[in-house]
Each structure stands twice: as C-alpha cells, then as structure tokens.
Amino acid sequence: MSEPKRKGQPRVLTDKEGEVRELSLADFRRMKPVREVLPEFVEAMDALRKKVGRPKTEAPKVHIGFRLSSDVVASIRASGRGYNARVEQALRKAGFGAAPNEDESTKALRRAAGAKKAKMAKKAAPSGSRTRNGPSKQSA
Length: 140
Fold this sequence. Notes:
Low-confidence stretches: none
Number of helices: 6
Strand content: under 5%
Structural class: mainly alpha
Order of helices and strands: HHHHHHEE
Helix content: 40-55%
C-alpha cells in the first residue's frame, strides 16, 4: 500500500528501502541549483579545489623553442634525465639570466643524479632477482 498523495506536496524520491524512483519531468522542474540550496557546500568545494595540486611557484618556467644542431641535442639528451636543469645551469654560468639559485639548481642536479643511479642499478640487477617493484618478468 503506497502513501496517499498530498496535494501540493512533492512525491518522496525514495522508497522504504532507500532506492530512488524514476524521476519525472515535474521532479526536475522543482529542483533548484545547489548554489541556491547549499551555498556553503559550493564555497567549501571551491576552497578545496584551490588547495589541491602543486603550489604556484614565484618564478614559473617558460616554454620556448629554438633550433640546435642534432649532435648537441643528442649529447644533451644522452646525459640522462634532468638535462633541462643542467642546460639551465650551464646558461646561467655563461652569464644568461640571474645568478644561479644554489638551492634549486642543486636540488635539480641531485634528482637527476639519483634517477641516473636508480636506472643504472636497475640495469645491473641480475634477471630473475627481486627488485623494488617485485620480481622481474622473465621471457619464456
């Protein structure tokens, strides 16, 4: 037995088990934007979105494009990961840009060196041995 309809009252959207019934056009017409119903919820979500992600840097990097000889590019890339930081540091030492910030450039070089060491260690690991990411896959 269903509940009696109340004149002027909207129908309940869920049944006794908590299942949502199929919504009608009249249900959609009665709905209001969440900004009107719960403005504090919208404000909280906006504040959360501003907190998420990488913090903004004081001096963001700028993407540029210019042409170099292929042998120069090959040798830079062959130096391993983090070559962008090494190129930037070389340009600063050559007198371009502001004086090098020791903290940032040193951190970048350390990250690059650490990545290179990890790559070398991974290559040196014997096949079939356990690595940081679990057992290596052996070909059949």
